[in-house]
Write a structure and sequence with these properties.
The structure is a homotetramer of 326-residue chains.
Chain A lengths: L12 H8 L4 H18 L3 E7 L9 H9 L5 E4 L1 H11 L5 E2 L6 H6 L2 E4 L2 E4 H18 L2 E3 L1 H15 L6 H8 L3 E2 L7 H11 L4 E3 L1 H13 L3 E7 L2 H16 L7 E8 L13 H7 L2 E11 L2 H14 L15
Parallel strand pairs in A: 1-2, 1-9, 2-7, 6-8, 9-10, 10-11
Antiparallel strand pairs in A: 3-5, 4-5
Helix pairs in contact in A: 1-2, 1-13, 2-13, 3-8, 6-9, 7-8, 10-11
């Protein structure tokens, strides 16, 4: 057996994570995840899908995600609607603020401040973005399309509307990274769309098309790697593509690489926290899949691991043209 | 101050929960939740919405949920797609089995057994239900409607297809309890719908209509009470109705009663685990909302609390006609 | 395979737990724990050890624990010092109060109120008990003995001091159930003992004697069953007895029954949350040990399961004379 | 309000943590903890106490802790017995190995391999260390002293026994950092001591002296800062010093700085997971204490934050002579 090699303090993040991968518990898992992600990036036949749950944009993860897109450390993004709503806010100069988690919320309500754990924001400002999205839907009308098509248009519209603004959506639109939001209407984007609908705007978001499109990407890929930030709909939506591909005899045999950063636990029985071992029983991951599940808040794991990837200088060798797989 | 009154063992569940409500920590919260749910049921002006996440049907919660519908302890159900898929399976005699959580999953895969923590099922049997749903979509075609409309039709179809079968869906259809599945295609129901789509069947599930319909129910209710089993899309989807109602000046001022049973934690910052205090800052709950968040696996909390409601003989005084609010 | 049998609401706790044992996830585990505990009680060759962590007495679990002792559902108690301090308080009419977990703690401090999550108490009153314990040590002086001997004397002293008072300690003293507190001085009992020491009182608590005595009980028992409420020192202290017995070739081969109610998780790597499978690798449990780890707050699990034992009328057949094993 | 400033990937750990302290959720807390720890180190009037729980040495944290001692980023160590036992093992060339958490433990048992989550070790080798400790006790005999005195002697003995070996204990002995183990006998050190006792060796570990000594250090310090790695006995043992100092009117008013890295949660009501706000109600921390509780596995938090301290070049200005305070 190989000895545990105690971690030594290191100034460089990549070096530190390499140290940690020879220790135990979740520190070891975090270190291993850097190695697995690096392998995905360096595998020329691999398409990389990222599932993004949790209030990551309010919590300051926007630049980290944008970096992943720019460096093409990911090829497909599946997100909650909320993350892309808050991303839209930031692009349009509606911001999030450093608050505190132990406060008087009735007082905040009276001041029009919304709280997301220790992050604050102004409800009034959010409503201007709800309206902006409603307005954008009006411009598109009549519209029917997948959420992936919708978010691509939204990303381009944001770049036009505020060329100096920054967002994951606009970066994805620019980089050819499709963004799926399977539960689009379960978010303030949905609120904006309902505002438009109630005004008579004709917009339909075709959720079956979403399943079709993402499955086509998986079916067209020789290998796939998945990274789950949290669980929820984004995780299941990516996981189920392998089951669908199998039903349609597409020649896939499960995701080949898999990473999850989560604060959920397997013993609650839900899909969000389940192990990749469990997923293997379903054929969602291959039996010999390189995988790691690291129990850690993503606001720690993401900055640390992405800094590790960047500082290690990991380079994508071949970028799959996912937009042409749809 | 009122003294902690040590819990005394009691044979009757309702009595035990009453005892527990005078203790501390999560036992106290569980006891308090019985009291708050009872108040919702006895409030003649209250519409009760249940959000259902987690693999509750595979875990044997079908009868508990059916009882809630039959006794009309709830008026609206918002669920993950998976729960209603597994509910459909049970109705059509495809069952779930007692397994174990610590097994060799590669071995299970080779035997065609899917694992959900300590519950097993046959993949082959699940695929017959995927096909049945695809077939049902074919019968409906051409179809455009909300998930609520779709699940109503599915519930009635199940009763016709297998009159001796039991399901939450068929019970809801019979009892006039609408079932919303905001992320319908993120589930095996979605898999069935895609199978149909790829065969050329014309089915569209209109997610914006879902937001519209559930918001109308909330807007038409004098007061609302919410119960969240887990978090995820069902929790947020119900929570956001109050924000939408506020934007449309519908006269609502937040949910009046709120219960959550969850294994998530507030400190991860996500919506699933956030406190009702946080929700008050957003106006989702009223500042004086009677609420309790109980940190407990729902497979414990639900059977215990629902047994408490039943054994206490809590009676609904007036059932709101929610189908007519849509 | 045996089918999952959906839980049906039941008024009787024992019946409900039996239902739950045929479901999934932690509800199933809770149900299984009733069965395993019942088997321990009915096994005539089994000595039952309970490890008690967490602020169980402040949280209103005193009567539940007393019932376990009175009915002799347990034979040995290993506790944190804090639990037995708060138990002493209750016996001497210093009580705990229903508070709230979301308050201004600086304000509480200024009012002399100590908070234990949602339980309040008066610091001033606690200090009278610190002094009482210091006084009791003075009466004993000069004293050297194990914590087990010390708590036995404390239990008897409490009965004399306040004959109408109730405590786990006095009940254990009366029932011949030894109480070990391996980290006695890490608690307000330790504070009282230090107060005495600083006044010149001669008191020594011999922690090596504790290890010796509890190991002798295990070595003298044909079989042992363990129940862990939480983890911490009480769990490890009981677990390690089997390793010690093995080193001394006492003929033991691990605990034969094992239950843990915990809110910790295996993936953090600590002893508190580790699985009984892990314990088997160490020889702490037998390879064929009947065991269950249930992830649930003990303020829920204990009242429910103990009510189940009581309402099922489980009877101890033969009570081991543990005091004579020391 | 100050805006959330999205974290940007950074190669240097200290820079990355500074970025993270302007984000949200636990990433922000981790960043803040670097700042608070730096302040403790730079405060010339501050004595720094570290509480160490969890299987940190098996998990490869030995070098990190040794670095803290060498650089005198801490002045007092309070540990579980297990950590110092495994530290002793490493010093005497008995090592820990990289294993896996999902294995057949009955098979491991048959091979004499002990598992600590994903770390393996040989039971036979551990028993040689149990015997070595028993032998060391024999050399000391007759002995009565605090665990602090005992660990000091053990540390020096290790250096003599294996001069090329490395351990936290020997480093602490060399650096004048006292090591308290309040529950010494709840560990394999206790097993070794019992082996000696049963052979007639006269050894007494005086736990009341431990409380006295650590309280004297706190009473002699102008200010104190605390860092808790996990909870358990080490946390409470350090926390209670302020209560004891208050009872003895020593002029203290609570710890002035406080950090906890934990995977426990406040809502379970135990001391391990309770907030520093709760502690303020008890007077354990000052009302204006600079504190942060970061929910993160210590095998992630410790390497990252200690690397941050080291790479930022934080320097202790004035080292308190804690050995002379006892």
């Amino acid at each position: 057996m190989k000895r545990v090699d105690p971690a030594v303090p290191a100034g460089n993040v990549a070096e530190l994570l390499a140290n940690m991968s020879n220790t135990g518990f979740q520190g070891r898992k975090l270190g291993e995840s850097l190695d697995i992600w690096s392998r995905m990036i360096e595998d020329e036949s691999c398409t990389i899908l990222l599932g993004l749950s949790g209030a990551m944009i309010p919590a300051g993860m926007q630049e980290i995600i944008r970096e992943l897109v720019k460096r093409r450390y990911i090829d497909v993004l599946v997100s909650t609607g909320a993350n892309m709503f808050h991303d839209t806010c930031e692009h349009l100069d509606v911001h999030h603020y450093l608050g505190h988690h132990h406060v008087d919320d009735v007082d905040l309500f009276s001041k029009g401040i919304d709280r997301i754990y220790d992050v604050f924001a102004y409800e009034k400002e959010f409503r201007t973005i709800d309206s902006a999205i409603s307005g954008f839907a009006g411009e598109l009308s009549p519209y029917t399309g997948s959420s992936r098509d919708f978010t691509g248009r939204l990303g381009r519209w944001l770049s036009e509307k505020n060329p100096s603004g920054k967002s994951v959506l606009s970066e994805c639109a620019k980089s050819g990274v499709p963004v799926f939001i399977p539960a689009l209407c379960d978010s303030s984007i949905g609120i904006g769309l309902l505002m438009a609908r109630r005004k008579g705007v004709s917009t339909f978001v075709d959720q079956i098309a979403d399943v079709d499109e993402i499955t086509k990407i998986v079916e067209s890929s020789e290998r796939t790697g998945v990274i789950y930030v949290g669980g929820g709909v984004p995780k299941n939506f990516i996981q189920q593509t392998q089951v669908i591909a199998s039903i349609h005899n597409a020649g896939n045999d499960g995701h080949h690489y898999a990473i999850q950063y989560t604060t959920d636990s397997p013993h609650w029985g839900g899909l969000s926290g389940c192990t990749f071992e469990e997923a293997i029983s379903w054929g969602k991951e291959t039996p010999d899949c390189r995988n790691v599940q690291c129990f850690c808040d993503a606001t720690i794991a993401l900055p640390v691991v992405v800094s590790g990837l960047v500082s290690a200088g990991v380079q994508r060798k071949k970028v799959p043209d996912v937009m042409n797989m749809i």
